């Protein structure tokens, strides 16, 4: 009888427990960006390419072409001297996340990268594009 009572209590507790919170889309995006930057820093083209969304992979159909494009056009992202996450915004219930990344290049120049991260049908997030802009603010003291 005691076992039945415990089982009933357990079932009632589960029935009224709040649903598990879905993973935070902004945190997922930041983790993804960090992992891709780490792959770039280690010259790991295969891992870096794996974080690209299907649309990016359609433009750059293999890891070597993708990696060459990043090295040429996104040098501050490819090998940042330092970076930190700035503002972020999730839209459409987390289907798209925009994440600002503040980058100091190895040459000391400051950049802002705006990442677009998209939620994929398999539940993962992938990088769908990056816009990189030089910072034109004061260089400080």
UniProtKB/TrEMBL annotation:
<protein>
    <recommendedName>
        <fullName>DUF4864 domain-containing protein</fullName>
    </recommendedName>
</protein>
<dbReference type="InterPro" id="IPR032347">
    <property type="entry name" value="DUF4864"/>
</dbReference>
<dbReference type="Pfam" id="PF16156">
    <property type="entry name" value="DUF4864"/>
</dbReference>
<feature type="signal peptide">
    <location>
        <begin position="1"/>
        <end position="22"/>
    </location>
</feature>
<keyword id="KW-0732">Signal</keyword>
């Amino acid at each position: 009888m005691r076992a039945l009572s415990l089982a009933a209590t357990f079932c009632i507790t589960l029935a009224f427990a709040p649903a598990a919170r879905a993973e935070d889309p902004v945190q997922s995006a930041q983790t993804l960006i960090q992992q891709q930057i780490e792959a770039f820093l280690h010259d790991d083209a295969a891992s870096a390419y794996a974080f690209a969304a299907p649309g990016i992979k359609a433009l750059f159909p293999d890891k070597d072409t993708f990696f060459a494009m990043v090295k040429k056009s996104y040098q501050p992202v490819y090998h940042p001297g330092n970076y930190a996450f700035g503002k972020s915004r999730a839209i459409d219930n987390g289907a798209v996340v925009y994440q600002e990344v503040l980058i100091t290049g190895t040459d000391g120049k400051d950049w802002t990268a705006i990442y677009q991260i998209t939620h994929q049908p398999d539940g993962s997030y992938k990088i769908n594009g990056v816009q990189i802009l030089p910072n034109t603010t004061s260089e400080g003291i």
